């Protein structure tokens, strides 16, 4: 399991290729990349904050949960913090498993967790205002399917 929280941009292709190259005996590798979205128009930046140490511990814990639930062989989580512009890469998840269904489900689980429960605080900055991003009902609904 590789969990990184970093300010610097990362090379998606290099990360995905390195992750896939480390896999042995796996039948599937799934990757997902999240980008900063400008939903309403006018977004200048997304400012992301976190508590070092606490964030990595929480992400490692959820990756271990994914390993236990789906029997994945490996996972990668890279999440950025700091000031990001629209369309910049904000995060990526990769999972490897013997079967594609497990790799896909584990990746979706990690993505849903990152969207709604990971200890990051996001502020949207526009030309005229700045506001903290509130939890969205659809993100909570997505996470709900993994309970029980």
Explain what the structure shows.
- This protein is α+β, with helices and mostly antiparallel strands.
- It has one domain (2-144): Molybdopterin biosynthesis MoaE subunit (Aldehyde Oxidoreductase, domain 3), CATH 3.90.1170.
- The chain is built from four helices and eight strands.
- The strands form two sheets. The protein has a four-stranded mixed β-sheet, with helices on both faces.
Strand ordering within the main sheet: 1-4-6-2
Please outline the major beta sheet. Answer: 4 strands, mixed
- Count of DSSP strands: 8
Shape: globular
Q: Which structural class fits the helix and strand makeup?
A: alpha+beta
- Written as H for each helix and E for each strand, in order along the chain, the element string is EHEEHEEEHEEH
What percent of residues adopt helix (DSSP H or I)? 25-40%
User: Mind telling me the C-alpha Rg?
Assistant: 16 Å
- CATH topology, which one? Aldehyde Oxidoreductase, domain 3
Beta fraction: 25-35%
How many DSSP helices?
A: 4
Q: End-to-end distance, in Å? A: 24 Å
The CATH class is identified as Alpha Beta
């Amino acid at each position: 399991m590789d969990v990184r929280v970093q300010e610097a941009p990362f090379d998606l292709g290099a990360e995905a290729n390195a992750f896939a190259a480390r896999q042995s005996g796996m039948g599937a590798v799934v990757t997902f990349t999240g980008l900063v979205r400008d939903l309403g128009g006018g977004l200048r930046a997304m400012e992301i904050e976190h508590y070092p140490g606490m964030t990595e511990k929480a992400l490692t814990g959820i990756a271990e949960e994914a390993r236990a639930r789906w029997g994945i062989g490996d996972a990668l989580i890279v999440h950025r913090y700091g000031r990001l512009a629209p369309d910049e890469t904000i995060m990526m998840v990769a999972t490897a498993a013997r079967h594609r269904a497990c790799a896909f489900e584990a990746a979706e689980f990690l993505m849903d967790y990152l969207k709604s429960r990971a200890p990051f605080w996001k502020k949207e900055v526009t030309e005229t205002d700045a506001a903290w991003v509130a939890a969205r009902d659809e993100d909570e609904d997505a996470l709900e399917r993994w309970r029980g």
